[in-house]
Amino acid sequence: MPIRLIVGLGNPGPEYEQTRHNAGFWLVDNLANDIGARLQRETKYNALMAKGSVAGNEVYLLEPQTYMNRSGQSVGGLCRFFKITPDEVLVVHDELDLMPGTARLKKGGSSGGHNGLKDITAALGTQDYWRLRLGIGHPRTLSLAQQVADFVLHRPRREDQELIEQSIDKSLLVMPLIVEGKFDAATMKLHTA
Question: What residues does the record give for site: Discriminates between blocked and unblocked aminoacyl-tRNA (predicted)?
Fold first, then answer.
């Protein structure tokens, strides 16, 4: 089944723009740019939204402007209105359990403590939607003394930023396969790149 909605997770506002928690926004911004779509404020969904074409398939791009822990309001509202099923949703988010430079595709599973995923799961009534996990590392594995909440709301070190950008580039290369519903091929290419 093809993907009809690509959601990037992050927090709105300039003070959060460069923080690790906004990695999902970074990918959707790049994708919108690549396909010539312009994200515009859509008050009905409290989000930035665009419509475009990836691999000949029409997709909606969405960046909730609700703050991370209320992301489900935007996603649930749009899915109900356009009759998009959870199988047709890809949520792009930062992932503490993966090192910077790593991107992984999976369907379903727990939220892993990610408040954006928790709220989307509640809004959709299921965990069975696709996730594109962009590694940001964990303060422990990066030998940092920061608490997790503080870590995700700060800008990455330059070397980590470069690795995160590389994982976004790799993810964008497989986006046509993901949107077409060729998840096995996309996973193989993404996980071995």
Answer: 11
Which sequence positions are flagged as catalytic? Answer: 21
Whether residue 31 has pLDDT greater than 80: yes
Residue type, 146: Q
DSSP 175: H
CA distance 9 to 67: 9
- Annotated binding residue 46: no
d(CA 14, CA 170): 26
Nearest to 44 by CA among 68, 75, 70, 16: 75
Which of 3.30.70.330, 3.30.450.40, 3.40.50.720, 3.40.50.1470 would CATH assign to domain 5-192?
3.40.50.1470
- Would you say 16 is a known binding-site residue? yes
Q: CA-CA distance, 66 to 145, in Å (whole number)?
A: 29
- Ordered alpha helix ranges (H), the chain: 23-35, 71-82, 115-124, 148-152, 158-179, 183-192
128 φ, ψ to 5°? -85, 65
- What single letter denotes the amino acid at residue 179? V
pLDDT at 101: 95
Is residue 6 within 8 Å of 60, Cβ to Cβ? yes
pTM of the model: 0.96
Q: Is 67 annotated as a binding residue?
A: yes
Residue 22: the pLDDT is 96
